[in-house]
Automatic annotation (TrEMBL):
HAMAP family for this protein: Adenylosucc_synth
Catalytic activity: IMP + L-aspartate + GTP = N(6)-(1,2-dicarboxyethyl)-AMP + GDP + phosphate + 2 H(+)
BP GO terms, sorted: 'de novo' AMP biosynthetic process; IMP metabolic process
Domain of life from the UniProt record: Bacteria
Function summary: Plays an important role in the de novo pathway of purine nucleotide biosynthesis. Catalyzes the first committed step in the biosynthesis of AMP from IMP.
Protein name stated in the entry: Adenylosuccinate synthetase
Details of cofactor binding: Binds 1 Mg(2+) ion per subunit.
Annotated GO CC locations: cytoplasm
Binding positions for substrate per the UniProt entry: 299-305
Listed PANTHER family: ADENYLOSUCCINATE SYNTHETASE
Gene name per UniProt: purA
Length: 430
């Protein structure tokens, strides 16, 4: 039985939430394996909108098990806020249908304070992070000084670890001219939140192993996208985790063969939020129009997303580096009505042509896109639920993208609504 990993193939916000929600009807378990509450995943079900950041997008289906894996960085206060918000919408969330890996590292107030102070100090050169403390929390994990969820059960260990953590962070705060923190600043809020979050703590690797052996279907939900991956993205303008499907296993406590099919999500154009290079960015009225039609504003920070044409070179690179088997192409409807549509098929750099995106930050900023131009379509694709409903030019556009990125389109999304989705290949099929 193939388990499926859903990952972003661009710079995030490709529509992963919608696709994970749709696919989760075919799964038993939905697992988040990286990132944190920097993610913003939107689901629209019968006109009702749900915005999820830390909770897996399967949570709305109540009967499915939602799992936050060890590869996530976990803010306990954000978690409780989100659980309460979704409960207010009438969704039942309990430790029966939502569990969190006991070895997940915590995001603490020191982390968001440091994230913001660093961004401020960088000024114009800032990364444009979400300010949620994601980078500093991953730094502490790798430096082996993170406080983990399981530490909240052991007061003596917790006190010792907070002292060690502050020895490091207060030195940084002094250097940044920011106020220092006392152990009580960390310990008191942690002691208060612990009884609320600990009921969700679980030995996730063990439960996933049992579920897998019982033949249950697992859907891994990625956050961000390949171009924000710490290794394969536009470094240093990236997030601090591996966003590719290769991380799904390590980030949930399973072996590499746990992932059978990798579904990459990409928009029929490109967006990016935050700083960093973006070869096909449109800083003109076409970019504005795409942003307006696509409602391109960030879910987490409300920032306006930068918009541009589809970059087939970049998505092909995401297909290769991430082992993507098929694509879910979203927001095709946003391109309805354009006279012509462009697609980047190569780059020009210093008089040479490139068929890949280079790693060097200077080269990434300087490459110029080589475009192919397509005739647009006048009829609408919005809300189409079958291939036959699509205008001929839209079909041509999709087919050409498949060739350029060297991966088939398995799903097509034509509106934010759950059921406005066309299935070509079932990723869960054996
Ligand atoms: P994620 O971070 O990848 O889950 O994506 P976001 O939720 O941040 O952003 C995608 C946005 O596009 C959301 O507002 C979705 O409701 C919306 N969306 C998803 N698929 C489609 C689609 O096919 N057409 C249109 N017009 N909107 C879509
Ligand atoms: P979803 O899951 C789009 C971007 C930020 C910034 C960079 C680093 O909704 O696709 P961070 O706070 O992670 O240290 O910020 O990454 N970023 C995202 N952009 N979608 C996301 O998540 C993002 N999560 C982080 O804007 O440029
Ligand atoms: Mg998003």
């Amino acid at each position: 039985m193939a388990n499926v990993a859903v990952v972003g193939a661009q710079w995030g916000d490709e529509g992963k939430g919608k696709i994970v929600d749709w696919l989760s009807s075919r799964a038993d378990v939905v697992v988040r394996f990286q990132g944190g509450h920097n993610a913003g995943h939107t689901l629209v079900i019968n006109g009702v909108e749900y915005k999820l950041s830390l909770l897996p997008s399967g949570v709305v289906r109540q009967s499915k098990l939602s799992v936050i894996g060890n590869g996530v960085v976990f803010d306990p206060w954000a978690f409780i806020r989100e659980v309460n918000a979704i409960k207010d919408k009438g969704v039942s969330v309990t430790p029966e249908n939502l569990i969190v890996a006991e070895n997940v590292p915590l995001i603490l107030p020191v982390h968001s304070a440091l994230d913001k102070a660093r961004e401020e100090a960088k000024g114009a050169g800032k990364i444009g992070t979400t300010g949620r403390g994601i980078g500093p929390a991953y730094e502490d994990k790798v430096a082996r000084r993170a406080i983990r969820l399981c530490d909240l059960t052991d007061e003596a260990v917790l006190v010792e670890k907070v002292d060690a953590l502050l020895a490091h962070h207060n030195a940084l705060f002094r250097a940044l001219g920011a106020p220092e923190m006392t152990p009580a600043d960390i310990l008191d809020p942690l002691r208060e939140i612990a009884p609320q979050v600990l009921p969700y703590a679980a030995v996730v690797w063990k439960q996933l192993d049992e579920l897998r052996r019982a033949g249950k279907r697992i859907l891994f939900e990625g956050a961000q996208g390949t171009m924000l991956d710490i290794d394969h993205g536009t470094y240093p303008y990236v997030t601090s985790s591996n966003t590719v499907a290769g991380n799904a296993a390590a980030g949930s406590g399973m072996g590499p063969r746990a992932v059978g099919y990798v579904l990459g999500i990409c928009k029929a154009y490109t967006t990016r939020v935050g700083s960093g290079p973006f070869p096909t960015e449109l800083k003109d009225e076409i970019g504005e129009l795409i942003g307006q039609k696509g409602k391109e504003f960030g879910v987490v920070t409300g920032r306006k997303r930068r918009c541009g044409w589809f970059d087939a070179v970049m998505v092909r690179q995401a297909v290769k580096t991430g082992g993507i088997d098929g694509i879910a192409l979203t927001k095709l409807d946003v391109l309805d009505g354009f006279d012509e549509i462009k697609v980047c098929v190569g780059y020009r750099l210093d008089g040479k042509e490139l068929d890949y995106y280079p790693s060097n930050a200077g080269a990434q900023a300087r490459v110029e896109p080589i475009y192919e131009t397509f005739e647009g379509w006048k009829d609408t694709t919005r809300g189409a639920r079958s291939w036959a409903e699509l205008p001929a030019q839209a079909v041509k556009y999709v087919r050409h993208i498949e060739e350029l990125i060297q991966a088939p389109v398995a799903l097509l999304s034509t509106s934010p609504e759950r059921d406005d989705t066309i299935l070509m290949t079932d990723p869960f099929a054996d």
